[in-house]
Structure to design on (386 residues):
């Protein structure tokens, strides 16, 4: 019994001893497990952090790449836009060149004189006008002639007859006349500084018509004539017949219509008749004139630049132009002590009618007093009636 108790105690001690010896191992094992868990946690945290960093890095790289792509795309678009603009500009420029080329290749509108071949006529002074006539006003001797019988549109030379009719009518020059829509040019679409509603005196309108070739002014003069426009145009034609202007016809008072036609010989007669009127001499040779239109003061100048040239002594003048008539000019002037009538029709360029007048003046000044020869093939001079 006693020995059995000892055996049991031994077993208990051994068990307790084993228990005690296992406890540190368990603690150590538990600590190792905890450390492992901590290490695993740290590794997991590191892995998570690394994963987050990787994700952030990747996201940053993606954003950078996206920005780069955006910049590249923007640059590409800009480049594309620039190229497109360049191509567009090139197309516009090309179109402009083509348009200019087409305009340049379009044939210019020929005057009646050009169509008739009048510029091919010979004259020793090489005038640019297809029709020319210079006569002595007192003796009616012809100093120069070129296609003087040709009947052509006369443009604003028409206004000289308008002035003759208005002056002869002795209408009140201070009477106010209003520019209306009827005076607006529908023939050629020309512009005017005299707006619809403008009020000027008859005298001012006549001044502008003769000096500056004002179309609305001339039309208003005919429109407000007693009896109206029809009566006025009838008087223009009647006066032409009375003066012996057999080749002349008028259809309106401005010259915008190409149906207003005459010959150089007829126009020389008209210039002589108009020069006899002091008012027409004064108004046609005025260098400039100002008119008050509302709150504005408009400055008008003479269309004939020779008026301001001291080398010329001009007693009466009128210029004209429409495409069918070319550049035209008629004058009375003193040259080399002689009163001469100049007529130039269908001149080729804007300044060529002036150049033709200068050529003739120099030629007359250089000629001997006698014998007088016509510059056309040395023919003797002839007389022009009127």
């Amino acid at each position: 019994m006693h020995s059995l108790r000892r055996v049991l105690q031994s077993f208990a001690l051994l068990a307790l001893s084993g228990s005690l010896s296992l406890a540190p191992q368990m603690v150590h094992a538990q600590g190792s497990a905890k450390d492992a868990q901590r290490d695993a946690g740290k590794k997991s945290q590191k892995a998570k952090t690394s994963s987050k960093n990787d994700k952030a890095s990747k996201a940053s790289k993606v954003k950078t790449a996206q920005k780069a792509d955006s910049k590249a795309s923007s640059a590409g678009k800009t480049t594309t836009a620039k190229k497109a603009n360049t191509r567009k500009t090139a197309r516009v420029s090309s179109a402009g060149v083509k348009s200019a080329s087409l305009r340049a290749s379009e044939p210019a509108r020929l005057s009646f004189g050009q169509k008739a071949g009048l510029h091919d006529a010979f004259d020793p002074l090489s005038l640019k006008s297809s029709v020319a006539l210079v006569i002595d006003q007192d003796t009616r001797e012809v100093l120069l002639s070129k296609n003087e019988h040709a009947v052509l549109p006369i443009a604003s030379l028409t206004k000289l007859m308008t002035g003759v009719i208005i002056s002869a009518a002795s209408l009140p020059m201070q009477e106010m006349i209003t520019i209306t829509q009827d005076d607006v040019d529908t023939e050629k679409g020309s512009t005017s500084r005299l707006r619809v509603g403008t009020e000027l005196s008859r005298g001012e309108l006549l001044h502008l018509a003769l000096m500056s070739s004002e179309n609305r002014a001339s039309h208003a003069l005919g429109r407000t004539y007693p009896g109206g426009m029809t009566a006025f145009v009838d008087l223009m034609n009647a006066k032409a017949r009375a003066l012996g202007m057999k080749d002349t016809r008028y259809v309106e008072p401005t010259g915008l219509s190409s149906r207003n036609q005459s010959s150089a010989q007829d126009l020389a007669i008209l210039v002589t008749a108009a020069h006899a009127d002091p008012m027409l001499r004064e108004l046609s040779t005025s260098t400039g004139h100002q008119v008050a239109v509302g709150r504005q003061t408009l400055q008008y100048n003479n269309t004939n630049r020779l008026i301001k040239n001291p080398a010329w002594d001009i007693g009466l003048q009128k210029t004209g132009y429409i495409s069918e008539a070319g550049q035209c000019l008629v004058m009375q002037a003193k040259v080399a002590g002689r009163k001469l009538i100049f007529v130039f029709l269908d001149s080729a360029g804007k300044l060529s009618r002036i150049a033709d007048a200068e050529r003739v003046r120099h030629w007359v000044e250089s000629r001997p007093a006698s014998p007088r020869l016509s510059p056309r093939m040395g023919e003797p001079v002839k007389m022009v009636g009127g």
